[in-house]
């Protein structure tokens, strides 16, 4: 019998066989170790897939978002920061009303997908800006460059990696908000 922890035997109790202490009592077969970088590669491939869907499905919008981010990055970052703070607060405000609760539930389910799309659009904007210096006009090249660069910078130690990812998220969300505002009829900047 193997045990982990403290074993107390009741008077008169017997154990058939050998009694051994073990520090590692797992449940079943241990999972195989994944090679280093597996999750980074998976993240890059999934971001490339989402970016390809965005470029294929709403390519004009995606290119306009990248232009907004490049032409006025501070405004895009500001709008992104406002959106990232205001969206959860708006969901909470909706959730306190009987009528707003179902709407809040739907928005809570949609926010991760919208955030992911914003993060990928931020990567695309960064990559499109960088490849423009090489006179490359292919959106796919900008997407690939942005995804790879953010994946590498996101691995920086301490708070630097998360700060890069957060800034790219705010850039993409803010530039998308500026573009949506322009397309919904308000005075747009571009």
Describe the structure.
By secondary structure, the protein is mainly alpha-helical. It has one domain. It is built from six helices and two strands, in the order ββαααααα. Strands 1-2 form a two-stranded parallel sheet. It is elongated.
Count of β-strands: 2
- What kind of sheet is the major sheet? 2 strands, parallel
Residue stretches low in confidence (pLDDT < 50, at least 5 long) are none
Helix/strand/pairing category? mainly alpha
In DSSP terms (H or I, runs of 4 or more residues), the helix count works out at: 6
Number of domains: 1
Strand content: under 5%
From the spread of the alpha carbons, the general shape counts as elongated
List the helices and strands and how they pair.
Elements: E1 2-3, E2 20-21, H1 38-57, H2 59-71, H3 73-95, H4 100-132, H5 139-153, H6 160-183
Parallel strand pairs: 1-2
Helix pairs in contact: 1-2, 1-4, 1-5, 2-3, 2-4, 2-6, 3-4, 3-6, 4-5, 4-6
What key attributes describe this structure?
about 0% strand, mainly alpha, 6 helices, elongated, single chain, two-stranded parallel ribbon, about 190 residues
Summarize it.
The chain is mostly helical and 190 residues long. The protein is 67% helix and 2% strand.
């Amino acid at each position: 019998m193997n045990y982990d922890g403290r074993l107390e035997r009741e008077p008169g109790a017997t154990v058939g066989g050998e009694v051994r202490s073990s520090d590692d009592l797992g449940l079943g077969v241990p999972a195989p170790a994944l090679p280093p970088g597996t999750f980074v590669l998976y993240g890059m491939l999934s971001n490339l897939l989402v970016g390809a869907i965005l470029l294929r499905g709403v390519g004009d919008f995606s290119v306009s978002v990248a232009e907004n981010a490049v032409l006025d990055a501070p405004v895009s970052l500001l709008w992104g920061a406002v959106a990232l703070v205001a969206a959860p607060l708006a969901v909470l405000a909706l959730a306190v009303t009987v009528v707003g609760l179902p709407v809040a539930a739907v928005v809570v389910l949609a926010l991760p997908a919208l955030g992911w799309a914003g993060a990928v659009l931020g990567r695309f904007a960064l990559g499109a800006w960088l490849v423009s210096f090489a006179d490359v006009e292919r959106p796919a090249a900008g997407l690939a460059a942005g995804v790879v660069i953010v994946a590498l910078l996101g691995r920086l130690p301490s708070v630097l990696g998360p700060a890069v990812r957060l800034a790219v998220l705010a850039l993409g969300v803010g530039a998308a908000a500026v573009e949506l505002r322009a397309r919904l009829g308000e005075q747009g900047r571009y």
